Amino acid sequence: MVILAGVLLASCEDFLNTSSPSVVDRDFVFSNPITSRAALVGAYEQWRSTAQNTFFGDGLFYAMDAAGSDIERHPEKHANQIGRHYPEGLYQNGTYASQYALLAYMKDPGDYANLYNTISQVNILIGAIEGTDDFAQMMASGTPTIKSQMYGEAVTIRACCYRELIKYFGDVPFVVKSGESSGLTPRDSIYDVIIEQLKAVEPVMYVVGAGVEKTYFSKTAVQALIGRISLEAAGYQTRRTDLGADFYKNGKGEVITFEKKGSANNQAEYARRSDWRSLYETAKTYLKACIDNPGSVVFRTADPRGATNGGKAYDNPYQYFFQQMNNLTVADESIYEYQMTQGVGNDSRPYSSGRVSSGSNSHPNSYPCKSYGQTRINPAFYYGVFDPKDKRRDVSVCVTGSTGKGIEKLIPFLPGSVANGGGLTLNKWDENRMAKPYVVNQRSSGINGPYLRMSEVYLAYAEACALTGDDATALTYLKKIRERAFPTGQANTEAFVTASGSLFKAIIQERGFEFAGEGDRRWTLIRTGLLPEVIRDFKALTKNMLDGIKANGYYTFANGNTISSYIWTKMVDAKSIIGYRLTTQCPAGKENDSILFPGWRGQNDNWEAFSKVPTTAIYATTTPQTNVAIRGLFNYIDPTGTDAAKLVSYGYTKTNWGADLVSNYDEYYKYLFLDYDYDKAPIYLWPYTPNVMATGGFTNGYGFKQE
């Protein structure tokens, strides 16, 4: 773990001696800042482990956030998936979560328990600091100190834990003092309390880069987090009606009124708080503060690598963010990253959601190691929604993976996993693009997890401004995000807003482009109330695509992209032809080059020299064919025409593409949001295990069985 800058250089004042021993466990002794920091590092490790293995890589992320929107999908057959999870994590009948073996993800001790273990750890530290004689003076000073910084970090870890619990479970027990217990607490009350707690610590924490690093929580992170949680607290959520009319209360204990959307479902209603505007105002205040004083956070509008470097094309500041993480560098745009160490732990995000590889689990048989690719991208989104000029498209989505032998492979749309099937893979985390790839074993790349970054702050601020009447500012910040993603002068933001139907909807759609495949989209659509209409429109778009391919052999979307039944592919030695293996951007004007386009794919340039990769037949040759050249990816080539015949004569092979979508029509359309009711409250939350219910003294809601 990286040590907080300056902390270990401080004097060892006994600042955690408490005048009230009852507020701290007797076995918990703090003697100086060093041991106190060590205790907090332990809480960070518990948070990191739980976050990576549960909420951002495996566990509930794997089962729910990796699909469930118009952008993300699971790769397997519907029949193979339901033994572990319902494909989109929307249980309209409530009983799905019990009918299928979903509780396998929730075995005790599990995700729920691990978060509360983290809360328990930080509650001890929080209680100890709150019991010190100078606590009130510290909080009133408005000036950061080592002690107040650690207190703020502990409070922030706790707030993050409750944020994740609410997101997945809704109303949960709320415990803020060590040793206490609680029954179900209304989520609105929890939101209000943790927002106020974050407000209280924000003035006495260091700005990131000025006393605290990005792998710890900072004043900057707290400002961003207040904005995020405020928007979520203000948004639509599905709430239980079986707990009584006066159950839902705010942080002051006052009963809340709601604005409802649609009809009730399984004793639940889809609604937002009537006072949602005040929460948006809070978000505006703290998001703007984060923007005005970002510390060491840099929102890149230009690629620091330049347009070209060493004969390779770059010129993509958006991709630079992910490349920094692939290089095991804390990214410029990050506000907070949870830290991973190469070769240690369960590095689930690149494995579960990164660019796929069909290789084995470990050296010496695979380079890169196997990557499952549970997060895939819907073809209708890739083809029909992404603007062809948007630089984020090829950063986010890739049509190829790896064989695991350093060879690029086209991923068929046939249902499956790794690079054997499942279709379009998420491209943001690619072990082929790592500066120091790790092939000893899978899940150990060492790539950090992005939790807060400045682009979210900009888009959240734009959203808050749009919904509080400040359209001019909202448009300004939408443009900041959009214009860096397009060639100069081609973002056409005003036209995009018009086509989206409103400025608010344009901002939410832009958020989809920015965070595609990262597990944000499903939750954003739920909280904004846009889920029903987005699902309806996307199902129609998907049907049109499939029916068009079936009838004509191709389908052309409104953005000009065409998906065809077939494409033409050929293996080539990209390194001898162009000098590298395609892990950079396609140069401007080369979009018709079958080798260079699309960009940000390919293989590591130097697998053959990597000491841990054995000599193999493919790399023993002087011209190893490691890359796929592709024709017809976005335009129709008549398979019976002269162009197709020429390609065959050049060594290209006709390859199934859209034809596999049609042959799996039910997988891509019928089972897409199966049984979803556009009017009823969406059931998207997770059931409690029998042990949790027994020990907590509460029941499942939303139609879930009490099992």
Structure characterization notes:
This protein is mainly α and 707 residues long. The protein has a domain at 340-447 and 532-676. It contains 26 helices and 20 strands. A hairpin with a 2-residue loop joins strand 7 (308-309) and strand 8. The relative contact order is 0.13.
Which features would summarize this protein structure in a list?
20 strands, mainly alpha, 9% strand, three-stranded antiparallel sheet
Concise structural overview:
The protein has 26 helices and 20 strands. The chain is mainly α. The strands form nine sheets. A three-stranded antiparallel beta sheet has the order 4-6-5, with no helix packed on it. A three-stranded antiparallel beta sheet has the order 19-18-20.
Oligomer kind? single chain
**Low-pLDDT sequence parts:** 1-31
How many whole angstroms does the radius of gyration measure? 26 Å
Number of E strands: 20
Number of helices: 26
Main sheet attributes: strand count, strand direction, barrel closure: 3 strands, antiparallel
- Name the beta content range: 5-15%
Biggest sheet strand order reads 4-6-5
Average pLDDT works out at 90
The percent of residues in helical segments reads: 25-40%
How does the overall form come out from the CA principal axes? globular
Alpha-carbon distance between the two ends: 40 Å
Judged by helices, strands and strand pairing, the structural class is mainly alpha
